[in-house]
Amino acid sequence: MPLVFVLFVGALKDGYEDFQRYKQDRNANNCVAKVLRNGELLNILAKDINEGDFIHYEKNEKFVVDSILISSSNEDGGCFVDTAELDGRIGISELSHLHSVEQISTLNGNIQCELPNQSLHSFEGRISLPEDFPLNKNDSNIIPVSMNHLLLRGAVLRNTETAWGLVLYTGSNTKIMKNLKKAAQKTSTLERSLNKFTLCAFILNAALLFSSLILEYFTYSKIKSHYTSEQVATIYDANGETNFNSTLYEWYLGPADQSPPMHILGTFFAYFIVYTYVIPISLFVSIEVTRVCQGLFMYWDNKMKYDRVLPDGTTMVQRMRPNNTNLNEDLGRVEFIFSDKTGTLTQNVMVLAKYFVNGHTFDEMKNKGGFGRSILSKQTDDDKTPLSSATLEYMVLFQRAISLANEVLPAHDANGKVIYEAASPDDAALLEAASQNQFVLVKRSKSELVINTPFYYHDGEDVENSKVSNGNFKAESYEPLAILEFNSDRKRMSTIVRTPSGKIHLYCKGADNVILSRLDNSPNVNLPSLIEEAQDSLKNFSVVGLRTLMVAWRELSEAEYEEWKEEHYNAERSISNREAALAAVAEKIEVNLRFLGCTAIEDKLQDDVPETIDYLLKADIKIWLLTGDKQETAINIGLSSKLLNKQMSVHILKGVSEKEVEKEIKDIQNFMKDNPGAVNALVIGGVALGILFSCSNDMQLMFLSIGRNCRSVICCRVSPLQKALVVKLVKKNVKCITLAIGDGANDVSMIQSANIGVGIMGREGTQAVRASDYAFAEFRFLKRLVTVHGRYSYMRIANIIMYSFYKNITMIMVMWWFGFVSQFSGTLVYEEIFMTAFNTFYTAFPPVVMAIFDYDVNDDYIDKYPQLYKEVKADSYWNFWTVAGWVLTAIWQCTAIFGVVYFVNSEGNISSTGRTTGYWVQTALFGTPVLATVTLKFCLATKSFVWLTAFAAAFSLALNSLTIAFVEYLGPSYSEAGNGALVNTDFTYYLFNPHDADVICEEQKVNAKRFIKHTYSFDELHARKDNI
To answer: Residues in domain P-type ATPase C-terminal (predicted)?
Structure first.
């Protein structure tokens, strides 16, 4: 019955979750979409949409399938798509003229593309059209399709009235569904300890079982040895019926079993069933219920709620999301935290801070728009320093490069103001600053880029001649020829345009180390002194925590461009390894660049980041910062966030070869040996880290050994793969709880590699949130998640485990002691209802109440004293001696209960009617003290009483009393034995010395087991007793 109840509760929980998924699937499948069928636009259910259908979307409509954007109501055929953030999608330029149902109906051809997969950042495919199909421009009938052309399921059409899509993937084949696969199952360390505890309980179960078997067989053999074979033969008469006058017939146990193997087997199963109660099966359901409730408390915690202001001015409430409550207790024992920087520690709200152009630094934070005013006045806006013609030319080209080298689609708000809703916050910050400096990108299409500026386009003439005398803006039109996209491997992006004068320019921006390696080495093109000065400025920008970019350009000849265009065309239309082919072609054109300048963008720290990190470090949690930023920027962020301080000994690993890295590691080890009291910190670059992971395991362990002795570690210029490798290195070799926190897609591998993954609901999409175990809006909430919810969860789960085993051991050990006075016959010391209801009703609620509501100190004190978290990590709530204490308490209390009840009533209490207590009262006299004892222990173990605590304790005792009263009320009908022989059950009197009803009841059970059917009378009963 208990097992059935546990399985029923588990099935009920799983069934509810399946039903919720069924409702979500039904709602998704029954969404209505407009699909073109047989020349008509029909309303079709999403589940009936097929690959190859043409689907029509309207503004603010959610995409129900993955489709290729064919055309839209916008002039260029592109559209805006709202995913996690607003980003653009580009229509098929060759088909952007198709708008009406009739025009779309004429479209036919074939699509070649990759099989359905979960990649949200890459896609390779192409559309093959008939040679006579009318295209928007004179081009090949084979049209390449990339990720920029896809409308992904779950996204929303924004700022575009209508759009046509060609259905590519449906149902479970869509990319979002492919990404909804459950991550590898994570289990908490306490759960693994529970498995060991359960194994020990099985050993105790086996010890009780075999000791009972041995003692029972000893008693059986002793009785059997008293009789000869002739006496044994008298057990049955000539007709095979039981001979009740046989001297071998025990009046209480029935005929002696003459088959030892069968006797042992029967006794084994009798005790096996009873002793299985040592394992609290209901504990596993109780833990699941507890975890769900703990997850709800996290979600309801207003101290982890964040009100995010959206671009339209509305406020969205973001609550903490517990995606995997199985790890609640592990939050209380975190040893290492691995954190991303941008968007995790910082706000990811970019603001252009400074420019560096041709030896001049312009501070846009102090003097917004000063860069543009300096061009107009031909002198710096702050100190009025005259600017040379060369500098002015650099400045104009620099701002044009900023305005053109991006993939942002400008839009207009209700007042006509240009807004930049970019996928990259860096691009949005650069364009906002450019517009403040009078270079405004107003239009982007497949055929045209338009910049509004008070400067005419010029090709080398004096800038003064390009100035509009009245200061009015004039539109400059550029023809976009190619875009070489940014990715984490390239770390740069380029655009190739044809200028108003017909020349071809390439503008490139990216990481400083990448751009520097692609600059023209000729001193006539790039002055070495200027490059050196630029590097110094970049270092200064990084020191104050600014994100830096370099900007460069070059002019292409027609012949060079045409040759490269042919290679790019072939790479763009390849059906396999397209990204690698495009990257190789881009390498050929992004060379011999001319340096223009640098940008520095500020990304402010989130609220309370320094205080949070300082608290976590005092709680003895080691924090490793894994970032793609350069060393100077990372160190400055470390200082401002209190990850580093001036009292620390900061060691830097920056070797570029295996020997250099090994020497630096050994030097750091020697320093730590010579200065054991020093507080250390470690900074390592991506190159050195790459060398470490390409070396032997010994080198990695040497690095790990110095990292463990450091208060904090900063890894710079790391790739997403290196982030995951660092986490795995610590997790594998230190054998501790690791936590990784990040906000972007490049943090997913790190999040999934750690024991616990935390996602930040930021501006870089939802992949990190989907891959995480817990998610919230800001880094500061990590402190409360770990030190309050984690600490409470660990304490509560540890208590529910130990209490559950304690109460069951207490109950079953009384049964074992009872064997010594019942000849180990397997007779239950408790009434059967009590045995069944003990775990499922009597003691089911107290441990759950304890695990949900109990706490030792208020969360305000935890916030003040980080030492309280260290106690949990030191195994104060779960260790060998604590567990042993609970087990020994159970053994002592069960021994005391049995001893008191037995010795007080061993002679039998005689009632006023002259009758003694017997078996049925025995069940109550043993069961009630056991229940009262474990309930009292629950009250004593509870550290914080709430009204539900008192209710759970009172409910358990009251339910037992009601059960006793109910059974006593049933009286004869409950204790009926044999053929109408009825007895009166008086629970107040009678214990061990049996009266007639006890004998009848026990014989009925024994005979039922031995398949003996007989009806007894009171005279027969007394005759058998008299014979004995």
So the answer is: 769-974
Instruction: Return the sign of the alpha-carbon dihedral for residues 363, 364, 367, 373.
Output: positive
The reply, when asked if residue 228 is annotated as ligand binding, is no
Report the run of H or E that residue 162 belongs to, with start and end.
strand 162-169
**Rounded to whole angstroms, how far apart are CA atoms 32 and 238?**
85
Token couple for 920: 């049925």
Tell me the per-residue pLDDT of 727-749, one tens digit each, with 9 for 90 and over.
999 998 988 899 999 987 778 88
What is the Cα–Cα distance from 968 to 975, expressed in whole angstroms?
A: 9
Residue-wise pLDDT tens digits, 118-157 = 776 678 888 888 877 766 555 567 788 888 788 888 788 8
Dihedral (Cα; 612, 613, 618, 621), 10-degree rounding: 120
In angstroms, the Cα distances linking 532 to 402, 491, 536, 595, 597 are 22, 21, 6, 12, 12
Scanning 695-839, the segments in alpha helix (DSSP H) are: 697-708, 720-734, 748-753, 767-771, 781-784, 791-818, 832-837
* Residue 171: both structure tokens together: 């149902």
> Are 425 and 349 within 8 A, CB to CB?
yes
pTM: 0.69
Q: Which is the catalytic residue, given 66, 330, 340, 603? A: 340
**Is residue 426 a known part of a binding site?**
no
- Does 342 appear as a known binding residue? yes
512 is in an annotated binding site: no
Largest Cα–Cα separation, the chain: 135
Tell me how far apart the alpha carbons of residues 958 and 964 are, in angstroms, rounded to a whole number.
Answer: 10
87 is in an annotated binding site: no
717 marked as part of a ligand binding site: yes
- Compute the distance between CA of residue 566 and CA of residue 902 in angstroms, rounded to an integer: 99
Sequence-distant (≥ 6) Cβ neighbours of residue 950 within 8 angstroms: none
Helix, strand, coil fractions of the chain, as percent rounded to 5: 50, 20, 35
Q: What angle do CA 78, 80, 81 make, to 5 degrees?
A: 120
CA–centroid distance for 116 within its chain: 25
Strands 622-626 and 334-339, by their bridges, are parallel
Q: Is 462 annotated as a binding residue?
A: no
Beta-strand ranges (E) seen in 194-345 are 249-250, 254-255, 306-309, 315-318, 321-322, 334-339
